[in-house]
Amino acid sequence: QVQFVESGGGLVQPGGSLRLSCAASGSISSIYVVAWYRQAPGKGREWVATSTKNFGTRYRDAVKGRFTISRNNDKNTLSLQMDSLKPEDTAIYYCNTDLQSSSWGQGTQVTVSS
Q: In what order do the strands lie in the sheet with 67-72?
């Protein structure tokens, strides 16, 4: 099974931008769905955005128009461009194939604060 390692998080002011990256241990070209999830302090993990095998995308309503998900099958990476960040975007961000997965990486911390 493919394992994922997230990176690119950090501290940013409201309205700022970050680009997250997810590196897969193997090919993702054959994986139908790869997605970003996040977990805010004191809350459960929630779905953020999805990239499909045919490069279709879907987004959580709260991030539509601000986040852009993309995959690079040649590099086996998944990215999340985050613009116009808000304090409520503060969370640990993860990538995976399924919200119900029993295996998760370390995630990458995104903190949006003035």
A: 4-7, 18-24, 77-82, 67-72
Tens-level pLDDT at each residue, the chain (114 residues): 789 999 999 999 999 999 999 999 999 988 889 999 999 999 999 999 999 988 899 999 999 999 999 999 999 999 999 999 999 999 999 999 998 999 999 999 999 999
Bridge partners, 80 (sequence order): 20, 69
- Tell me the C-alpha distance between 38 and 71, whole Å: 18
CA distance 47 to 63: 11
Cα 70 vs. chain centroid, distance in angstroms?
Answer: 10
